[in-house]
Amino acid sequence: MKKDTKKLMIVMIIAFVIAGYWDKSPFIKNSVSYVLDPTFGALIHWNLYIGFGIIIAIISLILMLSQKYLTNQEMLKEIKKEQKYLQKEMKKYKDHPEKLMELNKKQFEFFPKTFEITMKPLIYTSIPLIILFRWFGGILSPIWGGSWIWYYLIGSIIFSSIFKKIFDVA
């Protein structure tokens, strides 16, 4: 786990350096624009709402597939099943502080396991997502201001829910 945590920290530092130097280094911004303007930019210029919706669907699909194939789905499903069971037990024993504390402790034991399992997709998707968000900000902020992020979040929740069901992702 420590090895993956170090990898994630390095990737996150690189992602934030890229985001921080976006406006200071024309090379970064221009390189990303050179790649994304003819693809995603064309969709946005074709039809702002539908194009951005298609982009959100594509990003959600890629993120869902990375989560499905880069994580141990069986283990994640087992952990979620156990957590649901513990939540039911906690409801039963809400008036028994000792038992509730014991169940709560068991519940917290799952966090490191879940984090370890779900870390790998983060390592591979963090930098592209940060780059996309910076690019979206430059393209969409003049049109929508900061509200484009809400459109993205709502769209990604909808598409992620759909893809989660289709691909049976934990």
Characteristic key phrases:
single chain; 170 residues; mainly alpha; 7 helices
Could you give the topology of this structure?
Elements: H1 2-20, H2 26-46, H3 48-70, H4 73-92, H5 97-108, H6 110-144, H7 148-167
Molecular structure report:
The chain is 88% helix and 0% strand. It has seven helices and no strands. The protein is mainly alpha-helical and 170 residues long. It is elongated. The protein has helices spanning 2-20, 26-46, 48-70, 73-92, 97-108, 110-144, 148-167.
Number of strands: 0
Largest sheet: none
Report the radius of gyration as a whole number of Å.
20 Å
How many discrete domains? 1
Number of helices: 7
H and E order = HHHHHHH
N-to-C CA distance: 20 Å
Instruction: Tell me, briefly, the overall form.
Output: elongated
Give the DSSP E fraction (strand runs of 2 or more residues): under 5%
How much helix, percentage-wise, in residues? over 70%
Poorly predicted regions are: none
The class by helix and strand makeup works out as mainly alpha
The overall average pLDDT, rounded, is 88
Offer a quick outline of the entry.
With 170 residues, the chain is mainly alpha-helical. 88% of the residues lie in helices and 0% in strands. Helix 4 packs antiparallel against helix 5.
